[in-house]
Automatic annotation (TrEMBL):
It holds the Pfam family DUF8199. This is Secreted protein. Residues 1-25 form the signal peptide. Keywords: Signal. It comes from Hyunsoonleella flava. Coiled coil: none annotated.
Length: 132
């Protein structure tokens, strides 16, 4: 069980590092006030109304680029860099984790081998008493 938990924690931390360092761009192309295309990781398709050349102005099209930047540097710290409060917290969490998975004592069931008495007749039918 510990091996499975260890693999799950390692995988989740690897995903956390991957997604915190991932950066991407979202490109949007507007024709007037209408959104024509949205593209992630590539260029957005245009509506075909752009004019070529520096002397001709763009009539109505607009390109918008949103850049989502991830973390560029990862801070690598060692165990010696922790202060006293962090060490106490780490010790408490470790103690609670180790002692939290102890087995409970086996329960004793006192009426395990008790057999109920045989019914000779159904008393509710005999007395005509029914639950409604």
């Amino acid at each position: 069980m510990k091996n499975g938990i260890h693999k799950l924690c390692s995988f989740s931390l690897a995903l956390l590092v991957l997604f915190s360092t991932l950066s991407f761009t979202v490109e949007k192309h507007y024709c007037g006030d209408t959104l024509v295309d949205v593209a992630i990781f590539s260029e957005a398709k245009t509506c075909g109304m752009e004019m070529d050349g520096p002397e001709k102005p763009k009539p109505c099209c607009d390109d918008e680029v949103d850049v989502v930047e991830g973390q560029n540097e990862l801070k690598l710290s060692s165990f010696e860099d922790l202060d006293l409060k962090q060490l106490q917290f780490l010790a408490v969490i470790t103690y609670a984790y180790i002692n939290g998975f102890q087995d409970l004592p086996k329960e004793t069931i006192p009426h395990k081998n008790y057999a109920p008495p045989n019914l000779v007749c159904d008393i509710q039918v005999l007395d005509q008493v029914f639950l409604i």
